[in-house]
Amino acid sequence: MNAAAKADKSQERFYGALKDLFVGAPVEGQSGFINLMRIKSRYYTDGVFPKLKSDIEAALKRLGHDPNRGHDPNRLGSGSCPQTDSGSCPRSQSISLAHADKLQHA
């Protein structure tokens, strides 16, 4: 599976999980509660999800993410992380060490 197909599959699972969480299963029947559930479902499907998706796409674009490339764990924003001999990113190591130091002194 290429990187773009993998990214599409991950994105599909992400939005599917959000839909399951906020919209839920389709409801049937005639009652005030059922009407409220339908209104909630339309609110998330027609209002929240399209706005959320456009906001995520805009944020990724600002960070320099190319949706056709897929996810590159060695890339953050528009610059890349220099690799060490061990293959890890020294920036993440320094952040981890700084965080661990804060936890020790807390």
**Head-to-tail CA distance between termini:** 45 Å
As residue ranges, the low-confidence spans are: none
Count of DSSP E strands? 2
Major β-sheet profile: 2 strands, antiparallel
Radius of gyration: 21 Å
Beta-strand fraction estimate: under 5%
Helix % is 55-70%
Give a topology summary.
Layout: H1 3-22, H2 32-62, E1 75-76, E2 79-80, H3 90-104
Antiparallel strand pairs: 1-2
Question: Could you explain how this protein is built, in words?
Answer:
With about 110 residues, the chain is mostly helical. It is about 60% helix and about 5% strand. The protein has 3 helices and 2 strands; from the N terminus they run ααββα. A two-stranded antiparallel ribbon has the order 1-2. A hairpin with a 2-residue loop joins β1 (about 75) and β2.
In short:
The protein is mostly helical and 106 residues long.
Question: Which features characterize this protein?
Answer:
106 residues, mainly alpha, two-stranded antiparallel sheet
